[in-house]
Structures
1.
Amino acid sequence: MSYLGDNLGAQIIALLQSNFVEGCCAASAISLVLFDHASTISAEIQFIWGRKLTAVTLLFYANRWITFAWAIMSAATQLIEPTSILVCTAIPFTQEALALLLLFLWAAFSSVRVYALSNGSWLLVFLVFLLAVVPFGMNIYGDYWDNTFQFVEMPFAAILCAESSTMSLSLDIKLATATRVCLITSDVIVLLTTWAKSFLMWRDARRLGIPAPLATMLLRDGTAYFA
Protein backbone atom coordinates (compact mmCIF):
# COMPACT_ATOMS: atom_id res chain seq x y z
CA MET A 1 0.00 0.00 0.00
CA SER A 2 2.88 2.31 0.75
CA TYR A 3 4.21 1.78 -2.79
CA LEU A 4 0.86 2.59 -4.34
CA GLY A 5 0.50 5.69 -2.22
CA ASP A 6 3.97 6.92 -3.10
CA ASN A 7 3.34 6.25 -6.77
CA LEU A 8 0.06 8.15 -6.71
CA GLY A 9 1.69 11.06 -4.94
CA ALA A 10 4.49 11.17 -7.52
CA GLN A 11 1.96 11.15 -10.35
CA ILE A 12 0.02 14.02 -8.80
CA ILE A 13 3.21 16.05 -8.32
CA ALA A 14 4.31 15.39 -11.90
CA LEU A 15 0.87 16.38 -13.18
CA LEU A 16 0.85 19.61 -11.19
CA GLN A 17 4.36 20.47 -12.36
CA SER A 18 3.36 19.83 -15.97
CA ASN A 19 0.26 21.99 -15.59
CA PHE A 20 2.35 24.75 -14.01
CA VAL A 21 4.79 24.80 -16.94
CA GLU A 22 1.92 24.70 -19.42
CA GLY A 23 0.23 27.56 -17.59
CA CYS A 24 3.40 29.66 -17.65
CA CYS A 25 3.85 29.10 -21.39
CA ALA A 26 0.20 29.95 -22.02
CA ALA A 27 0.47 33.10 -19.90
CA SER A 28 3.53 34.21 -21.88
CA ALA A 29 1.78 33.70 -25.22
CA ILE A 30 -1.37 35.45 -24.01
CA SER A 31 0.65 38.39 -22.69
CA LEU A 32 2.47 38.80 -26.00
CA VAL A 33 -0.77 38.77 -27.99
CA LEU A 34 -2.50 41.26 -25.70
CA PHE A 35 0.57 43.53 -25.61
CA ASP A 36 0.80 43.47 -29.40
CA HIS A 37 -2.86 44.41 -29.75
CA ALA A 38 -2.63 47.17 -27.18
CA SER A 39 0.54 48.67 -28.68
CA THR A 40 -0.62 48.59 -32.31
CA ILE A 41 -4.30 49.51 -32.02
CA SER A 42 -3.54 53.18 -32.78
CA ALA A 43 -1.69 52.24 -35.98
CA GLU A 44 -4.55 49.94 -36.95
CA ILE A 45 -7.06 52.75 -36.51
CA GLN A 46 -4.89 55.12 -38.55
CA PHE A 47 -3.99 52.85 -41.45
CA ILE A 48 -6.65 50.13 -41.63
CA TRP A 49 -9.96 51.34 -40.24
CA GLY A 50 -12.10 53.04 -42.82
CA ARG A 51 -10.31 51.47 -45.77
CA LYS A 52 -12.28 49.70 -48.44
CA LEU A 53 -12.80 46.03 -47.65
CA THR A 54 -10.63 43.85 -49.85
CA ALA A 55 -9.26 40.33 -49.57
CA VAL A 56 -6.14 41.74 -47.93
CA THR A 57 -7.94 43.87 -45.34
CA LEU A 58 -10.32 41.01 -44.55
CA LEU A 59 -7.35 38.72 -43.99
CA PHE A 60 -5.81 41.34 -41.72
CA TYR A 61 -8.95 41.75 -39.62
CA ALA A 62 -9.55 38.02 -39.40
CA ASN A 63 -5.96 37.21 -38.45
CA ARG A 64 -5.74 39.99 -35.87
CA TRP A 65 -9.02 39.45 -34.08
CA ILE A 66 -9.13 35.66 -34.25
CA THR A 67 -5.68 35.73 -32.65
CA PHE A 68 -7.11 38.00 -29.97
CA ALA A 69 -10.05 35.64 -29.44
CA TRP A 70 -7.65 32.70 -29.24
CA ALA A 71 -5.73 34.49 -26.48
CA ILE A 72 -8.94 35.11 -24.53
CA MET A 73 -9.98 31.46 -24.85
CA SER A 74 -6.50 30.35 -23.80
CA ALA A 75 -6.84 32.50 -20.70
CA ALA A 76 -10.25 30.96 -20.03
CA THR A 77 -8.74 27.49 -20.34
CA GLN A 78 -6.22 28.35 -17.64
CA LEU A 79 -8.51 30.28 -15.30
CA ILE A 80 -11.86 28.52 -15.45
CA GLU A 81 -12.05 25.34 -13.41
CA PRO A 82 -14.10 22.70 -15.20
CA THR A 83 -17.31 21.88 -13.37
CA SER A 84 -18.82 19.48 -15.88
CA ILE A 85 -17.93 17.46 -18.94
CA LEU A 86 -19.63 20.17 -21.04
CA VAL A 87 -17.28 22.87 -19.76
CA CYS A 88 -14.39 20.43 -19.97
CA THR A 89 -15.08 19.90 -23.67
CA ALA A 90 -16.47 23.24 -24.85
CA ILE A 91 -13.55 25.50 -23.92
CA PRO A 92 -10.74 23.38 -25.45
CA PHE A 93 -12.81 22.69 -28.57
CA THR A 94 -13.49 26.41 -29.02
CA GLN A 95 -9.81 27.22 -28.55
CA GLU A 96 -8.84 24.54 -31.05
CA ALA A 97 -11.42 25.84 -33.54
CA LEU A 98 -9.84 29.30 -33.36
CA ALA A 99 -6.39 27.77 -33.86
CA LEU A 100 -7.70 25.94 -36.92
CA LEU A 101 -9.05 29.18 -38.37
CA LEU A 102 -5.64 30.77 -37.89
CA LEU A 103 -3.95 27.90 -39.73
CA PHE A 104 -6.37 28.37 -42.63
CA LEU A 105 -5.81 32.13 -42.65
CA TRP A 106 -2.04 31.71 -42.70
CA ALA A 107 -2.38 29.39 -45.70
CA ALA A 108 -4.55 32.00 -47.41
CA PHE A 109 -2.05 34.76 -46.58
CA SER A 110 0.82 32.77 -48.09
CA SER A 111 -1.26 32.22 -51.22
CA VAL A 112 -2.08 35.92 -51.57
CA ARG A 113 1.60 36.75 -51.10
CA VAL A 114 2.67 34.34 -53.83
CA TYR A 115 -0.05 35.67 -56.14
CA ALA A 116 1.27 39.21 -55.73
CA LEU A 117 4.94 38.31 -56.11
CA SER A 118 4.53 35.89 -59.01
CA ASN A 119 2.45 38.26 -61.15
CA GLY A 120 -0.66 36.16 -60.70
CA SER A 121 0.66 32.63 -61.16
CA TRP A 122 -2.34 30.51 -60.16
CA LEU A 123 -0.25 27.33 -60.34
CA LEU A 124 2.02 28.57 -57.56
CA VAL A 125 -0.97 29.92 -55.63
CA PHE A 126 -2.76 26.56 -55.61
CA LEU A 127 0.44 24.67 -54.84
CA VAL A 128 1.30 26.90 -51.88
CA PHE A 129 -2.25 26.82 -50.55
CA LEU A 130 -2.60 23.04 -50.81
CA LEU A 131 0.69 22.51 -49.00
CA ALA A 132 0.06 25.18 -46.35
CA VAL A 133 -3.46 23.96 -45.60
CA VAL A 134 -2.31 20.43 -44.70
CA PRO A 135 -1.90 21.30 -40.98
CA PHE A 136 -5.49 22.55 -41.01
CA GLY A 137 -6.79 19.18 -42.18
CA MET A 138 -4.49 17.16 -39.95
CA ASN A 139 -5.45 19.15 -36.86
CA ILE A 140 -9.15 18.70 -37.59
CA TYR A 141 -8.60 14.97 -37.45
CA GLY A 142 -6.38 15.10 -34.38
CA ASP A 143 -8.42 17.65 -32.42
CA TYR A 144 -11.95 16.45 -33.14
CA TRP A 145 -12.23 13.02 -34.72
CA ASP A 146 -9.53 11.30 -32.69
CA ASN A 147 -9.67 13.23 -29.45
CA THR A 148 -11.78 12.80 -26.33
CA PHE A 149 -11.97 14.55 -22.97
CA GLN A 150 -12.74 13.09 -19.57
CA PHE A 151 -13.76 14.86 -16.40
CA VAL A 152 -11.26 13.73 -13.76
CA GLU A 153 -11.03 14.61 -10.08
CA MET A 154 -7.48 14.21 -8.82
CA PRO A 155 -7.14 13.42 -5.10
CA PHE A 156 -5.83 16.38 -3.11
CA ALA A 157 -5.06 18.22 -6.35
CA ALA A 158 -7.65 19.62 -8.69
CA ILE A 159 -10.44 18.86 -11.10
CA LEU A 160 -8.91 18.34 -14.52
CA CYS A 161 -9.88 17.68 -18.10
CA ALA A 162 -8.00 14.60 -19.24
CA GLU A 163 -7.38 14.53 -22.98
CA SER A 164 -6.87 11.21 -24.72
CA SER A 165 -6.35 9.91 -28.23
CA THR A 166 -6.62 6.50 -29.87
CA MET A 167 -3.89 7.34 -32.38
CA SER A 168 -0.74 5.26 -32.03
CA LEU A 169 2.55 7.00 -31.35
CA SER A 170 4.08 5.82 -34.62
CA LEU A 171 1.14 7.12 -36.66
CA ASP A 172 1.22 10.39 -34.74
CA ILE A 173 4.91 10.84 -35.60
CA LYS A 174 4.31 10.02 -39.28
CA LEU A 175 1.43 12.48 -39.58
CA ALA A 176 3.34 15.19 -37.73
CA THR A 177 6.36 14.68 -40.00
CA ALA A 178 4.23 14.82 -43.15
CA THR A 179 2.53 17.97 -41.90
CA ARG A 180 5.82 19.71 -41.16
CA VAL A 181 7.29 18.71 -44.53
CA CYS A 182 4.29 20.16 -46.38
CA LEU A 183 4.42 23.38 -44.37
CA ILE A 184 8.17 23.81 -44.83
CA THR A 185 7.83 23.13 -48.57
CA SER A 186 5.14 25.80 -48.79
CA ASP A 187 7.36 28.32 -47.00
CA VAL A 188 10.31 27.45 -49.25
CA ILE A 189 8.20 28.13 -52.35
CA VAL A 190 7.10 31.48 -50.92
CA LEU A 191 10.69 32.32 -50.01
CA LEU A 192 12.05 31.41 -53.45
CA THR A 193 9.29 33.42 -55.11
CA THR A 194 10.21 36.38 -52.91
CA TRP A 195 13.88 36.05 -53.78
CA ALA A 196 13.15 35.82 -57.50
CA LYS A 197 10.99 38.95 -57.40
CA SER A 198 13.55 40.81 -55.31
CA PHE A 199 16.35 39.86 -57.70
CA LEU A 200 14.41 41.06 -60.75
CA MET A 201 13.63 44.39 -59.12
CA TRP A 202 17.22 44.79 -57.91
CA ARG A 203 18.52 44.04 -61.41
CA ASP A 204 16.16 46.55 -63.02
CA ALA A 205 17.05 49.20 -60.44
CA ARG A 206 20.75 48.64 -61.01
CA ARG A 207 20.31 48.89 -64.76
CA LEU A 208 18.58 52.25 -64.34
CA GLY A 209 21.17 53.49 -61.86
CA ILE A 210 18.73 53.63 -58.95
CA PRO A 211 20.25 52.88 -55.53
CA ALA A 212 18.73 49.63 -54.28
CA PRO A 213 20.67 48.01 -51.42
CA LEU A 214 20.05 44.29 -51.20
CA ALA A 215 19.14 44.51 -47.50
CA THR A 216 16.47 47.10 -48.29
CA MET A 217 15.02 44.95 -51.05
CA LEU A 218 14.84 41.90 -48.81
CA LEU A 219 13.24 43.79 -45.95
CA ARG A 220 10.72 45.48 -48.21
CA ASP A 221 9.73 42.27 -49.95
CA GLY A 222 9.42 40.45 -46.65
CA THR A 223 12.26 37.96 -46.71
CA ALA A 224 12.94 38.87 -43.08
CA TYR A 225 9.60 37.20 -42.29
CA PHE A 226 11.25 33.82 -42.87
CA ALA A 227 14.32 34.53 -40.72
2.
Amino acid sequence: MPPSTANKNSDLDDDESCCTNKKTHFYEFKEHDQVKKLLDNLPENIKELRSRERSFEQFRFICDTYQEQPHLIDPFLSDIVDKIINTIKQEIQNENPCKLLIDQAFKYMHSLAKMRGYKRIVQYLPHEITDFEPVLKLLQSQDPTNSESWETRFVLLLWLSIICIVPFDLERFDASENQADSILNRFLKITVVNEFFIIFI
Protein backbone atom coordinates (compact mmCIF):
# COMPACT_ATOMS: atom_id res chain seq x y z
CA MET A 1 0.00 0.00 0.00
CA PRO A 2 1.53 3.41 -1.02
CA PRO A 3 2.39 5.82 1.78
CA SER A 4 -0.19 8.46 2.54
CA THR A 5 0.15 12.06 1.39
CA ALA A 6 0.53 13.10 5.02
CA ASN A 7 3.55 10.84 5.42
CA LYS A 8 5.11 12.21 2.23
CA ASN A 9 4.64 15.76 3.46
CA SER A 10 6.14 14.79 6.80
CA ASP A 11 9.21 13.35 5.07
CA LEU A 12 9.60 16.52 3.00
CA ASP A 13 9.36 18.66 6.13
CA ASP A 14 12.05 16.56 7.80
CA ASP A 15 14.33 16.94 4.77
CA GLU A 16 13.82 20.72 4.68
CA SER A 17 14.44 20.97 8.42
CA CYS A 18 17.64 18.97 8.03
CA CYS A 19 18.88 21.24 5.25
CA THR A 20 17.95 24.36 7.22
CA ASN A 21 19.91 23.22 10.27
CA LYS A 22 23.10 22.59 8.32
CA LYS A 23 25.81 25.12 9.20
CA THR A 24 28.43 26.47 6.87
CA HIS A 25 31.97 25.81 8.04
CA PHE A 26 34.86 28.01 6.99
CA TYR A 27 38.56 27.27 7.05
CA GLU A 28 39.88 30.83 7.01
CA PHE A 29 38.79 34.43 7.32
CA LYS A 30 38.57 35.52 3.69
CA GLU A 31 37.13 39.01 4.13
CA HIS A 32 40.20 40.68 5.62
CA ASP A 33 40.78 42.88 2.57
CA GLN A 34 37.12 43.88 2.48
CA VAL A 35 37.16 44.74 6.19
CA LYS A 36 40.36 46.74 5.74
CA LYS A 37 38.77 48.72 2.92
CA LEU A 38 35.63 49.41 4.96
CA LEU A 39 37.70 50.71 7.87
CA ASP A 40 39.98 52.78 5.63
CA ASN A 41 36.92 54.41 4.06
CA LEU A 42 35.12 54.98 7.35
CA PRO A 43 35.83 58.75 7.57
CA GLU A 44 34.56 59.22 4.02
CA ASN A 45 31.54 56.93 4.27
CA ILE A 46 29.99 58.70 7.26
CA LYS A 47 29.35 61.82 5.19
CA GLU A 48 26.26 60.31 3.60
CA LEU A 49 23.62 58.36 5.49
CA ARG A 50 23.20 55.75 2.78
CA SER A 51 26.93 55.06 2.48
CA ARG A 52 27.30 55.00 6.26
CA GLU A 53 24.52 52.48 6.74
CA ARG A 54 25.54 50.30 3.80
CA SER A 55 29.17 50.10 4.95
CA PHE A 56 28.23 49.24 8.51
CA GLU A 57 25.76 46.58 7.37
CA GLN A 58 28.50 44.99 5.27
CA PHE A 59 30.82 44.91 8.27
CA ARG A 60 28.14 43.54 10.58
CA PHE A 61 27.18 40.88 8.03
CA ILE A 62 30.79 39.71 7.90
CA CYS A 63 30.93 39.53 11.70
CA ASP A 64 27.65 37.62 11.84
CA THR A 65 28.86 35.20 9.17
CA TYR A 66 31.72 34.09 11.43
CA GLN A 67 29.66 34.02 14.62
CA GLU A 68 30.02 30.23 14.85
CA GLN A 69 33.77 30.27 14.09
CA PRO A 70 35.04 33.57 15.49
CA HIS A 71 38.57 32.25 16.07
CA LEU A 72 39.22 32.46 12.33
CA ILE A 73 39.56 36.23 12.61
CA ASP A 74 42.31 36.02 15.25
CA PRO A 75 45.28 36.34 12.84
CA PHE A 76 43.85 39.68 11.69
CA LEU A 77 42.29 40.89 14.94
CA SER A 78 45.17 43.09 16.06
CA ASP A 79 45.27 44.88 12.72
CA ILE A 80 41.49 45.43 12.67
CA VAL A 81 41.33 46.74 16.24
CA ASP A 82 44.32 49.03 15.61
CA LYS A 83 42.63 50.54 12.57
CA ILE A 84 39.47 51.34 14.51
CA ILE A 85 41.37 52.73 17.51
CA ASN A 86 43.63 54.85 15.30
CA THR A 87 40.58 56.37 13.62
CA ILE A 88 39.18 57.28 17.03
CA LYS A 89 42.47 58.64 18.38
CA GLN A 90 43.12 60.77 15.32
CA GLU A 91 39.64 62.24 15.46
CA ILE A 92 39.63 63.16 19.16
CA GLN A 93 42.88 65.05 18.63
CA ASN A 94 41.14 67.41 16.20
CA GLU A 95 40.01 70.80 17.44
CA ASN A 96 36.42 69.96 16.50
CA PRO A 97 36.16 66.16 16.54
CA CYS A 98 33.34 64.58 14.58
CA LYS A 99 31.14 62.78 17.10
CA LEU A 100 29.40 60.90 14.32
CA LEU A 101 32.69 59.39 13.15
CA ILE A 102 33.71 58.47 16.69
CA ASP A 103 30.36 56.81 17.43
CA GLN A 104 30.43 54.96 14.13
CA ALA A 105 33.92 53.63 14.82
CA PHE A 106 32.75 52.36 18.20
CA LYS A 107 29.80 50.63 16.51
CA TYR A 108 32.29 48.70 14.40
CA MET A 109 34.25 47.81 17.52
CA HIS A 110 31.12 46.64 19.30
CA SER A 111 30.17 44.37 16.38
CA LEU A 112 33.66 42.93 16.52
CA ALA A 113 33.34 42.35 20.28
CA LYS A 114 29.95 40.73 19.79
CA MET A 115 31.44 38.30 17.28
CA ARG A 116 34.77 37.50 18.96
CA GLY A 117 33.88 38.21 22.58
CA TYR A 118 34.81 41.28 24.60
CA LYS A 119 37.37 39.38 26.69
CA ARG A 120 39.39 38.74 23.55
CA ILE A 121 38.94 42.26 22.18
CA VAL A 122 40.19 44.05 25.31
CA GLN A 123 43.51 42.25 24.94
CA TYR A 124 44.16 44.32 21.82
CA LEU A 125 43.02 47.69 23.18
CA PRO A 126 45.83 50.13 24.05
CA HIS A 127 46.37 50.11 27.80
CA GLU A 128 49.28 52.39 28.50
CA ILE A 129 49.05 54.76 31.46
CA THR A 130 48.90 57.68 29.03
CA ASP A 131 45.67 56.27 27.57
CA PHE A 132 43.80 56.65 30.86
CA GLU A 133 42.93 60.35 30.82
CA PRO A 134 41.93 60.62 27.11
CA VAL A 135 39.63 57.61 27.48
CA LEU A 136 38.18 59.00 30.72
CA LYS A 137 37.57 62.40 29.10
CA LEU A 138 35.88 60.81 26.12
CA LEU A 139 33.66 58.76 28.41
CA GLN A 140 32.80 61.87 30.43
CA SER A 141 31.73 63.66 27.27
CA GLN A 142 29.09 61.01 26.53
CA ASP A 143 25.40 61.49 27.23
CA PRO A 144 24.32 58.44 29.28
CA THR A 145 20.71 58.95 28.17
CA ASN A 146 21.53 58.83 24.46
CA SER A 147 20.40 55.45 23.18
CA GLU A 148 22.02 56.10 19.80
CA SER A 149 25.56 55.94 21.17
CA TRP A 150 25.40 53.21 23.79
CA GLU A 151 28.01 51.19 21.87
CA THR A 152 30.46 54.05 22.39
CA ARG A 153 29.96 54.01 26.16
CA PHE A 154 30.11 50.21 26.25
CA VAL A 155 33.46 49.99 24.46
CA LEU A 156 34.91 52.95 26.39
CA LEU A 157 34.11 51.19 29.65
CA LEU A 158 35.76 48.04 28.35
CA TRP A 159 38.77 50.11 27.37
CA LEU A 160 38.89 51.85 30.73
CA SER A 161 38.60 48.52 32.55
CA ILE A 162 41.73 47.12 30.90
CA ILE A 163 43.70 50.34 31.48
CA CYS A 164 42.82 50.27 35.18
CA ILE A 165 44.44 46.87 35.56
CA VAL A 166 47.80 48.58 35.06
CA PRO A 167 49.06 49.71 38.50
CA PHE A 168 49.66 53.46 38.61
CA ASP A 169 49.10 56.43 40.90
CA LEU A 170 46.05 58.47 39.84
CA GLU A 171 47.41 61.54 41.61
CA ARG A 172 50.13 61.92 39.00
CA PHE A 173 47.42 63.05 36.55
CA ASP A 174 45.88 65.64 38.85
CA ALA A 175 46.59 69.21 37.81
CA SER A 176 43.64 70.59 39.77
CA GLU A 177 43.90 71.47 43.45
CA ASN A 178 40.14 71.12 43.77
CA GLN A 179 39.44 67.67 45.18
CA ALA A 180 36.02 67.60 43.51
CA ASP A 181 37.76 67.83 40.12
CA SER A 182 40.38 65.21 40.91
CA ILE A 183 40.94 62.30 38.55
CA LEU A 184 39.76 59.85 41.20
CA ASN A 185 36.47 61.68 41.76
CA ARG A 186 35.89 62.02 38.04
CA PHE A 187 36.56 58.32 37.59
CA LEU A 188 34.20 57.33 40.42
CA LYS A 189 31.48 59.65 39.17
CA ILE A 190 31.59 58.36 35.60
CA THR A 191 31.51 54.73 36.71
CA VAL A 192 28.47 55.40 38.92
CA VAL A 193 26.68 57.13 36.03
CA ASN A 194 27.38 54.10 33.87
CA GLU A 195 26.69 51.60 36.65
CA PHE A 196 24.56 49.38 34.43
CA PHE A 197 27.39 48.88 31.96
CA ILE A 198 29.93 48.25 34.72
CA ILE A 199 27.73 45.50 36.17
CA PHE A 200 27.24 44.02 32.71
CA ILE A 201 30.98 43.99 32.05
